[in-house]
Amino acid sequence: MVNEPLPIVTPADRVERLAAPQAVRLLAAWSAAIAVVGLATWSAPLPSGLHVLAPVAVAAWMAAAAGLRSGLVVAALGAVAVTAAVAQGVGPDRLLERALGGLGVWGAATWAAWLSAGRPVPARLRARARLSLVGRSVGRDLQRQGAAWQRSAWLARATGLFHGTLNERSVAAALARAACPELARLCTVDLVDGDQVTRDIGYASPDGAAVAARLRAAPLRLDRDDPLTAALAARDPIVLDPVAAADLDALAQSPPHREALQAIDAGAVALVPMVHRGRALGVVTFFLPRGRPLAPADLQVLGEAVRRAALALDHARRYRRAQETARRKHEDLAVLDTFLREAPIGLAFVGRDLRFIRVSASYAAMSGQPASEHVGHAVRDAQPLLADRLEPVLERVLATGAAVTGLELSGCVPGLGDHARRWTLSGYPIHGPDGHPVGVGLVQVDVTEQRESEEERALLVRELEAAVAARDEFLSVASHELNTPLTPLLLQVQMLRRQVATEGAAADPQRLGQRVETVERQIERLAKLVKELLDLSRITSSRLRLQLEPCDLAALTREVVTRHAHDLHDAGCAVTLAGDEAVPGHWDRMRLDQVVTNLLTNAMRYGARGPIHLSVTAAGDRARLEVRDRGAGIRPEDQQRIFERFERGASSRHYGGLGLGLWIVRQIVEALGGRIGVDSAPGQGSTFWVELPTAGPADRDD
Fold first, then answer.
1. SS3 122
2. Most buried residue, 146, 262, 269, 507, by most Cβ within 10 Å?
3. Which pLDDT tens digit goes with each residue over 359-393?
């Protein structure tokens, strides 16, 4: 066979060859291979064997489609190179780039061999060279696009982890775990909340657990000046690439901490602050592996991931604070309800529309209506009896913002009878966020018993003061009354002594008798005063004892009148005695004598030298004694008072006595089971009457 020279290929021939169906098949096969391998490699992780076979399959497919029989040999050699690359930890995107790059080297080498031999370059070689150049360019584009797809997929997965929780620590832990191993060998997340710092750590290798435990013990310290606090303060990332020994010294807080940082063996460190709405929430530290330079796109992805984590963290904190606010509100309401239920005083809250918002049980009880009849109802509807006084107070507090305290209220409570209750009411403004009153807090205290006790105490004080004044007056009167008979008594005794001394046995018996009689009357008067004092002591100490015996009240009255005939004559009082001849009964004769005597002497003292009429009658089982005079009379308001101790119907300046006579009479009459009273009017005299049961007192001891 004759060897023919190779035809010389002109530029026009090259264009025609490239337009041949073989070139079309080449481009179609190359496009399909790129699509299949790209989807298989970057849409989901593949086993390492498939990563090895993928670039080899691409090279073989492209060579076969181009009609290059030597492509199979090249593919075999490429498989060896790819296997070595996988052993070095090269990723799938790098594998594809190396495969396509190897194909390009193969085409360039074939082209150079033809040119060095001085032989024309066949169209096949020209197509192979062009294919290799295009493959390298496409490989680089595919690498960049695959890396972008990978970053986007990782960012989407991490975002799903962030937003799948409302717990702050879970957000930090999700970010730390998501970063490893795809982006970093180890990742620390330091969260700052006020003065509190918490740290979560994610790591890529099993031996990272020991390192993480040592790093967890040394979280971010806000009081240190190191790269972490610098990134936090600047709100911008700080990249340490490569990591120098000085960088580790700056990051370390202690020698063990530095050893842990050294053990990570990071090629670069990225400190990215977590910032949201201008507030620094923490710092994320990415420890990146060696042999992988930190590209601007990588840093951008890290920043976006941290930004999204900061957003999720802010949501988690807002949720936590909302939960805490709701819990505190619930607890506050529970405390308020307990306080309102158990408070011994009345508490109520009224809004600006003068409607009750909350009411304590005590307040509802004071108004006589259940709490349900207050809440949501207007003050005028819930408390109509007090509304006219209560509403002006509420309006005043709302208008001025000043408290009103100590308001006295009184009224009858429905269901508690006609007894009026008394309260003190105070109103205090409840200020809103803007400082203006939004309601009024009412404090109501039932002071009915307190006021009654105060009034009783005031009455007792007045009575005590009156008793002290009466005592002082009594002591003054008693000293005067005791001194009055002593003075004439002493005078008469001195006169008797002089008469006896001067006249001796020749003294006039009549004159001696008169003076002795005067002495006797003064002694009797003195004895009567002393007896009244003794009776006062006995009665007040409940030592008044009765000696009950049969007694005739009419005969006893006549005896008393006869005994005081001289005194009646001296007083200028004529006595008339009427009634039954005999009025028998069972009484204490001595005490009954004292009753008649005191009433008779009282009529002589106040009768204005007028006639005195005595009457003793019996009606059934009752005996009645009346003593009537024609004196000045007694005012109606004094008719009960004169029977009290140290009291009298007229001033002691005009009438003598201790003011005990009528009081002693009343005590004796009541002890005998009877009654005493007076019928009188000013200017018409007085009639004192005594009624006694003829059988004596009901509780007598026979």
1. coil
2. 269
3. 888 888 888 888 888 899 998 988 888 888 889 99
